[in-house]
Prior knowledge:
There is one protein chain. The protein has 283 residues and is an alpha+beta fold. The chain is 30% helix and 26% strand. It has helices at 2-12, 63-72, 88-93, 131-137, 169-174, 176-182, 215-233, 239-251, 262-266; strands at residues 17-20, 35-38, 45-49, 54-58, 75-76, 110-116, 122-126, 146-153, 155-156, 159-168, 185-190, 196-205, 256-261. The strands form four sheets. A five-stranded antiparallel sheet has the order 3-4-8-6-7. A four-stranded antiparallel sheet has the order 11-12-10-13. Helix 7 packs antiparallel against helix 8 (239-251). The longest helix is centred in the last third of the chain and has 19 residues, at 215-233. The protein is globular and about 60 Å long.
Amino acid sequence: xxxxxxxxxxxxxxxxxxxxxxxxxxxxxxxxxxxxxxxxxxxxxxxxxxxxxxxxxxxxxxxxxxxxxxxxxxxxxxxxxxxxxxxxxxxxxxxxxxxxxxxxxxxxxxxxxxxxxxxxxxxxxxxxxxxxxxxxxxxxxxxxxxxxxxxxxxxxxxxxxxxxxxxxxxxxxxxxxxxxxxxxxxxxxxxxxxxxxxxxxxxxxxxxxxxxxxxxxxxxxxxxxxxxxxxxxxxxxxxxxxxxxxxxxxxxxxxxxxxxxxxxxxxxxxxxxxxxxxxxxxx
Length: 283
């Protein structure tokens, strides 16, 4: 196996090996003066088990590819993050999550995986085989070895209905437990320098597809004009206050509704390069 040769060469030269997935993050965390393995061409679907609703894939497959393959077989991942241009091994190794009080992070959907460790041995891991290593490898952070393949537990294909509406930050925080009970996948987006939030409910539905998107408002105003104004605000930071207030009023002060396949609702288009931190805050 080519990977074993890389590991052996790294040992001889006393260098580290880093594995990278989809390269979605703009950070330089994957950069190294050692060896880098890009998994982009290990992207096949290896096995689809329709009875168990499980799929085994090579570690480098992007979830965007996997979503389409599962759709053909009447299956879907039960939960997804905001983007799918990320690899199967990367999405579990970084603890990618969505939202909803009843749902675990994406690694909780993994039922088995294969791990190539520094000695060159391939270890098969699952809840029954090497369970302690399996639990660690599902959130591996790139520290345990090279993940070669991943088996996901799936669910039957489903649609989601997304309802979004404006509210105040005070109101949402005061009624947080009620919101969490009311929607399977609840989240809210707060706009700094305002008391306004965008509340988003996503729930399974049998309704036909429906879209309230508009190219003019979503792209001409919500992307191109907003990006231009934010660029100006990098020279005049005080403008951010007024930009946030204006764009909430223009784009997010009314109710909207969309219905589509689950992966199309879970994912949303990140039009700007984003610098993101995740914080866990007691409810």
